[in-house]
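Record filed below.
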Amino acid sequence: MHRVFILFFLSTFSVMAQKASPVATTLTPVTQDRDKAIYDWQKRHLAAMEMGKTAPVDVVMLGDSIWHYWAGEPKAPIVRGLKPWDELFQGKTVANLGFGWDRIENALWRVNQGELSALKPKTLILLIGTNNLEFNTALDIRAGIVNLCQTIHKQLPECHIQVLGLLPRTLPEKLISRPVEVNAELHQALAGMERVHFHDLSKVFYDEEGKLDAKLFSDGLHPNEEGYTRLAKAMRLLVAH
């Protein structure tokens, strides 16, 4: 009897522990200045808003420093993969709305302020959440990304949102959740959402033996030029519309 009760208690506790927080920080839009030693967050936001006054674009890259320091406009102080960027987006107009150190809630703030609405992209490629791993559960990250997609579609109902799963990292920090856990949640949560497509491109960064290839990263998190070259190759179908 006691054994049955204990098993029931542990099972119930496990289910409760997996639930998203009642008020996840990933759902509350806020600004940030965590990368101020490298760039001015507010200034980049204003530059993104100015881009929308020029003309619509074909593609928007929305996310954190993995996008920000790849290449494209608005220009960033760091460029790690200009050649694969140009090859991937040849013949298309692109806005890079990646912001260094952004978390989901920061991208949500920017979307709410209108960064996307004037650009009117046909395709949006979303990569966000790696900076939430240290602070949020996988379910909180899932809730934040689902909410972000819904917010984008309220402004741009015809836009196709290509959501990339969190990329692997070699960094040794102690994390509350890990990319593989988040990607499993996103695969489940985004299935069936209209004009939302999920892609886990993690395998791009593994070698033939199934080990993470540290030679593809500049610092354990951000791809170097070879890493971006492989990533761009895997993304070709995402921008083929």
Observations:
- The longest strand covers residues 59-63.
- Residues 21 and 140 are 6 Å apart (CA to CA).
- Residues 56-239 form a domain with the Rossmann fold fold (CATH 3.40.50.1110).
- The chain has one domain: 56-239.
